[in-house]
Amino acid sequence: MAGTLAPTITLREFENGYWYLHQLKAFADRVGIPSAGKLRKDELEKAIVAFLRTGKAALPTKRLLYKTGVKDLERGLSLNLRIENYTSNRETKTFIVQQARLMAPEVRAKPGVWYRLNRWREEQITGGKRPTYGDLVRQYVALNQTEQFEKIPQGRYINFIAEFRAAEKAATHQKAVAAWAELKALDIPKNYASWVKVKKQAERKGKRK
After folding, report:
1. Do the Cβ atoms of 146 and 135 come closer than 8 Å?
2. Which residues lie below 8 Å from residue 77, measured CB to CB, with a gap of 6+?
3. What is the rounded distance in angstroms from the CA atom of residue 199 to the CA atom of residue 63?
4. Helical H segments across the chain, by residue range
5. What is the pLDDT of residues 71-128, one digit of tens each?
6. pLDDT tens digits for range 118-137
7. Which residues in 138-153 are b (16+ Cβ under 10 Å) and which e?
8. 103 and 145 in contact (C-beta within 8 Å)?
């Protein structure tokens, strides 16, 4: 369960806790992490872990946090257009999906694709490459054709739900969410293996009584 974030918190306490976005932003701002209000939750967690390990407050990403100039939408989206000032909205997503269906009519959207597509776009740009919207559409197609994704770093809720539903018999989303609520209240790592371990320990204690 989320408690209080303070500069005296240990790395173990932080990693075993569950923190909401507003708590992370407030803490990051308090300890001097640059542009805390512009960072995603996973970036904030990464920056705070680094701070707790080193005592240094540093920006955890090279991506451009403040954008100026004409938006790509205003320039007119096309496959040849270089990604300069991307806007994540319905119009942009519709363009990507429509172009993807022209390239690969059989492709259907999978959960988790947009998150991974956005991270790919950011990595390409921060790595010095100049991808086009055509490159982005092709990556969207490739991601939707991927059988199984690697786990998302810091995506503890998403990873837990996926592992729970894959491993538990007759698992439903409702049961997975209930198990996650149990896990959040415990002072243990927020992953499926830790939840299983606690459950087994509780079962053994119950049998001894």
Report:
1. no
2. 92, 95, 133
3. 41
4. 11-16, 21-30, 41-54, 72-75, 90-103, 113-126, 133-144, 156-167, 173-184, 192-208
5. 999 999 999 999 999 999 999 999 999 999 999 999 888 888 998 999 999 999 988 9
6. 999 999 998 899 999 999 99
7. bbbbebbeeeeeeebe
8. no
